[in-house]
């Protein structure tokens, strides 16, 4: 049975947008030949990726739902729109296989992030306000491109196994340390044997990185100083590495950028907004983040969230997707 929802009214679409964190909409018409070509692919994606209240695929007949088509400025058929938390996030006009490939790949990675948020963070991202949490404002003209990270290939070295996995760093939910929610799953990471951490993040596409946002929320209780984790102080960034570095190698290599953080760099929500030397972060396919030391006398450092801000560029080569049409229809 198809999992795709056929929209019969503007109010129904509004309900779906409120109920599901991601909505993928296919705007089509019965007379549109490219629409018929792409329909089987859309159904395959719907069957594979739909999740109740999380990811929903819908079809909108533009002849029957003219008000909806006009509201979202649909002028070419087919048009695919991806909504995130009720707002338009992506748009593909016409039966363009390459563009659809890009959106599907990005959607797949977004779903991985949502799964991590639901499972490993103890469901702390269930509410809209929590899911929209960012920690710091975006620089004007740039977007959050954290969803371009290939989560399955990320690697974090020297992590305490009693804290969260690498996935929690990219969770869009508000950290439990700020939300006040109790959870058996820890939605942060700490270093293990000493204060250093090495994080390898490969990307789906060429990125232009403008800003790095790091959230670190050590507890402020009265435990001994040696037992309380620290915020990062010295960070080294390396670009376009095919795999993670070793700690000795990271110590010796010249970094693309080295960062020194102090107490004044952290805002009220525990986030440091770090501008990068933009000219050195063009056409980036991977990033290695090396936490060299922490700001204090403790033995461990802590990371709660990590966000990449910039622009996504050309997609790297991906597996073939079935051809869905040669020319977009009007």
UniProtKB/TrEMBL annotation:
Residues 115-134 are annotated as: Disordered. Residues 134-328 form the PITH domain. CDD domains: TRX_family (cd02947). GO terms for cellular component: cytoplasm. The keyword Disulfide bond applies. Pfam families: PITH, Thioredoxin. Gene3D superfamilies: Glutaredoxin, PITH domain. Keywords: Disulfide bond. The keyword Chaperone does not apply. Residues 1-109 form the Thioredoxin domain. InterPro entries: Galactose-bd-like_sf, PITH_dom, PITH_dom_sf, Thioredoxin-like_sf, Thioredoxin_CS, Thioredoxin_domain. Belongs to the thioredoxin family. PANTHER family: THIOREDOXIN-LIKE PROTEIN 1. This is Thioredoxin domain-containing protein. It comes from Thermothielavioides terrestris (strain ATCC 38088 / NRRL 8126). The lineage of its organism: Eukaryota, Fungi, Dikarya, Ascomycota, Pezizomycotina.
